[in-house]
Write a structure and sequence with these properties.
five-stranded parallel β-sheet; alpha/beta; 2 domains; UDP N-Acetylglucosamine Acyltransferase, domain 1; serine acetyltransferase, domain 1; 9 helices; 15 strands; globular; six-stranded mixed β-sheet
């Protein structure tokens, strides 16, 4: 009698498999990091376990231990599997778009922009489920540790890349679509003390340059580029490049997916 095969098939997780392989490589290359790599990756049972361990150690303080934080983070991941899915997409986006990223393990272990947005995702879970005080606590620690201040009420898609990330601020009613890239010192903020829906809506595939400020309840169309240092106060049509203070349209986006090409240069007319 032929042996029956089990109907159970182990789930395939290529991101986690690659991270584990790269962890072994790091241990061979830099033995002094072996303790960190074993604790953070090799001894962990899943990508979510590794991410929770890493974030808990980064966010822990005298106010909340890493053990308690691991429980907080694990609970969020178990309740909402989309958090882990988005974290994987963010890691892939960072590897594909950041020329300083050579291994997919690097965002998990070393890149504060990646770590900050994963901390936000946990805080957003608690905000969405009505546990606002826990969400505020996580926001506070994320800001203190990573220098990135994202209100837990903001809605952020997947495939996000925050390059350098220092001093990024995203307000409560901001919405960020999928596959968006932004550099350090970006602000998605309001214009004053108004209440209600008061922050920008960034559609899919947008590239936001370093130091850009997008202010108010305005919409930035899909696959647009915002030049470094710009102050955007009005809606931006899809597939355009804007620059200046205040920002004005200076041309087309230059490609189909500016957030993935990361091309921050645009042509300017010159006197002949």
């Amino acid at each position: 009698m032929a042996q029956q095969k089990s109907p159970y098939v182990a789930p395939v997780d290529p991101v986690w498999t690659r991270i584990q392989t790269e962890a072994d490589d790091i241990v061979r290359e830099e033995p002094m990091l072996a303790g960190l790599i074993y604790a953070s990756v090799i001894n962990r049972k899943s990508f979510e376990d590794a991410l929770g361990y890493r974030l808990a150690h980064k966010l822990a303080s005298g106010e909340m231990t890493d053990g308690l934080l691991r429980e907080v983070i694990q609970s969020a991941h178990e309740a909402d599997p989309s958090i882990g899915a988005a974290a994987r997409a963010d890691a892939v986006a960072t590897l594909e778009r950041d020329p300083a990223c050579h291994r997919i393990i690097q965002p998990l272990m070393f890149f504060k922009g990646y770590q900050a947005i994963q901390s936000y995702r946990v805080a957003h879970h608690y905000w969405a489920t009505g546990r606002h005080n826990m969400a505020y606590f996580l926001q506070m620690r994320t800001s203190e540790v990573f220098g990135v201040d994202i209100h837990p009420g903001a809605r952020i898609g997947k495939g996000i890349m925050m390059d350098h990330a220092h001093s990024i601020v995203i307000g409560e009613t901001a919405v960020v679509g999928d596959n968006v890239s932004m550099l350090h010192s970006v602000t998605l903020g309001g214009t004053g003390k108004e209440h209600g829906d008061r922050h920008p809506k960034i559609e899919n595939g947008v590239l936001i340059g370093a130091g850009a400020k997008v202010l108010g309840d305005i919409r930035v169309g899909h696959c647009s580029r915002i030049a470094a240092g710009s102050v955007v106060l009005e809606d931006v049509p899809p597939c355009k490049t804007v620059a200046g203070v205040p920002a004005r349209i200076v041309g087309e986006a230059g490609c189909d997916q500016p957030s993935q090409s990361m091309d921050q240069l645009f042509g300017l007319a010159t006197d002949t």
